[in-house]
Amino acid sequence: MSKKPLSYYKSIRYNVIIEAKKDDEDIFYVAYCKELSVDACRGIGDTEEEALISFKEEKEYYIDYLYNNNLHIPEAEIPKESYSGTFSVRTSPQLHAILVRQAEEQSVSLNLLVNQYLAFGCGSQQVTQAVNEKLDQIDNNMNYRFGSILSGIKSIAYKTSDIVPLNRFEKSCPSSSPSMKYAVGF
């Protein structure tokens, strides 16, 4: 599938993204590019520089692998057009009126108000993603902790002669005293 020489593919300059990640208390960095996919080719390091160096090494190995197995090697994405920062939006007259009123109430232009709403909407996705990741981390941590606690509770056996019968959780004690029971199976 690769039609160009290997040296061409190795010389492609991809736009590299470097993200800080947190694992427990440690912070590390991941470097990747969209074209090669973070799941297939990424560099990891304790600093941004280490992650970038690691990515460059991994990219070499990954492109070798794709080329030698005659697999598709994606080229760097080049924006096909530049963006002026201006676009038109069609909306209903009712929504237009609401937005004009809100802009007047806040003493800002309609353009600035809509720009703020768009920025908030775009940013809220990133915030939502970060919050969801943190909630997942907390959930996993709580599951781990509660799992340990429940395992500990299940292994505890209470010996007493004052326990009221526990129905299906009651098990006779193999000791010589018939009044001693173990309560197990929480």
What would you say this structure looks like, in words?
The protein is an alpha+beta fold. It folds into three domains: 6-68, Double Stranded RNA Binding Domain (2-Layer Sandwich), CATH 3.30.160; 108-154; 156-186, no CATH class. 46% of the residues lie in helices and 15% in strands. The chain has four helices and six strands. A three-stranded antiparallel beta sheet has the order 1-2-3. The protein has a three-stranded antiparallel beta sheet with strand order 4-6-5, with no helix packed on it. Strand 1 (17-23) and strand 2 form a beta hairpin. Helix 3 crosses helix 4. The longest helix is centred in the last third of the chain and has 45 residues, at 110-154. The radius of gyration is 30 Å and the shape is flat. The two termini are 61 Å apart. The model is unreliable at 157-164 and 166-186 (pLDDT under 50).
**Major beta sheet, strand line-up:** 1-2-3
Based on CA atoms alone, the radius of gyration comes out at 30 Å
In CATH terms, what is the architecture of the largest domain? 2-Layer Sandwich
* Gap from first CA to last CA: 61 Å
Task: Tell me the structural class.
Answer: alpha+beta
CATH topology label of the largest domain: Double Stranded RNA Binding Domain
Please identify the top-level CATH class of the largest domain.
Answer: Alpha Beta
Q: Characterize the biggest β-sheet.
A: 3 strands, antiparallel
The level of helicity is 40-55%
The geometry reads as flat
Percent of residues in beta strands?
5-15%
Helices, by number, come to: 4
What is the H/E order? HEEEHHHEEE
Report the average pLDDT across residues: 78
Low-confidence stretches: 157-164, 166-186
E-strand count: 6
Give the number of domains.
3
